[in-house]
Amino acid sequence: MILRNVYMGNFIFHFHFSPLVVVTNPNFKKISESDFSDYFFETIPETLHRQFGNSRVWQLWKQGIETNVFMPQFHGREHLNVARWMKALQLEHKDTMTAFNYGFFGLPARHTFNEQGYMDSYAYLTQAERAKIIPAIKVGLELFETLFGYKAVLFTPPNAVFDPFLESYLRQSGLAFITRPKFRVVNRGNGQKIPIIGFMGRKGLFGMRYSVRTCSFEPCDPGRNHAVDQCLYHIQESFKYRQPAVISSHRVNYVGSIDQKNGNKGLKHLKALLKQIVLKWPDVEFMSSEDLYHLILKNENGK
What's this model's pTM, rounded to 2 decimal places? Predict the structure, then answer.
């Protein structure tokens, strides 16, 4: 919890992180035992226990929630296009099978079946594939509430690929806020994807609000040697146009289970970024994504 508070003079700054989480991963063992005829999943705590042999990581997640630093929101049941991946496994696609045997599926698109990748959970080619999306989201939302003890109010689709037909169901399920990049892709089926520009606070057809991720912070990306400065620039641009600075940053920047240097580097840069923010904007206010949603509603209602 080192990053919870930064002391600047007489002020204490409380940071809030709203990680967007998928609640399951494929259960490789059961899928293999079914001879790739059926798909099975395991929950995130089960994955963590299988990998590390204990519940320490999961307990740290819970600790972050209890201290109001770490407030997860919903990203989907799994970060995987199940239909496309299972088809590749059933056809014994070479690279997909090799990855499966090592227990992962996140291959570069060029190494996947038809070079389409496997990470865009809600892309579909047929109506049969489309019909399976809502049941998967329903299960995911139920698992989210079971695992975290509260209902999600915010959603972002994996890989930003999303069909607006889902918004009605998401709103009925209690989700109120969709966060996405400035530019996103709408899936229209049959492989057709349309780019869309997003606007902060805009209200959708079914009453959901949109949040736009205006800043990116990926310090461990080999192509971003000045991640802190680049993020500060985009924060400044957001504030110049009287917009909240919504910072997107992926978990890969802060984990060290494979290479501890990676996690150390990401945390070092994160602390540097947070300190620079409070030095440059001493009246800055940090808030969770859910708090931002309520602030947008409050301002709209004039309260």
Answer: 0.87
pLDDT for 290: 86
At 9, the pLDDT band (50, 70, 90 cuts) reads: very low
As a whole number, mean pLDDT of residues 165-176 equals 90
| 213 SS3 class | strand
Please, are residues 59 and 70 in contact by the beta-carbon 8 Å criterion? no
Using the predicted structure, report yes or no on whether residue 279 has a pLDDT greater than 80. Answer: yes
Supply the pLDDT for residue 207: 82
The angle formed by the CA atoms of residues 229, 230 and 232, to the nearest 5 degrees, is 65
DSSP string computed for 9-75: TTEEEEP-B--EEE-EEE-HHHHHHTTTSS--EEEHHHHHHHHHSSSHHHHHHHHHHHTTSB--EEE
Residue in the block written with tokens 């989210």: 144
Q: Of 76, 250, 259, give the one whose Cα is nearest residue 157.
A: 76
Give the 3-state secondary structure of residue 243: coil
Give the whole-angstrom CA distance, residue 291 versus residue 13: 16
Euclidean distance between CA atoms 30 and 46, whole angstroms: 14
Going by C-alpha positions, the residue among 252, 292, 283 that lies closest to residue 270 is 252
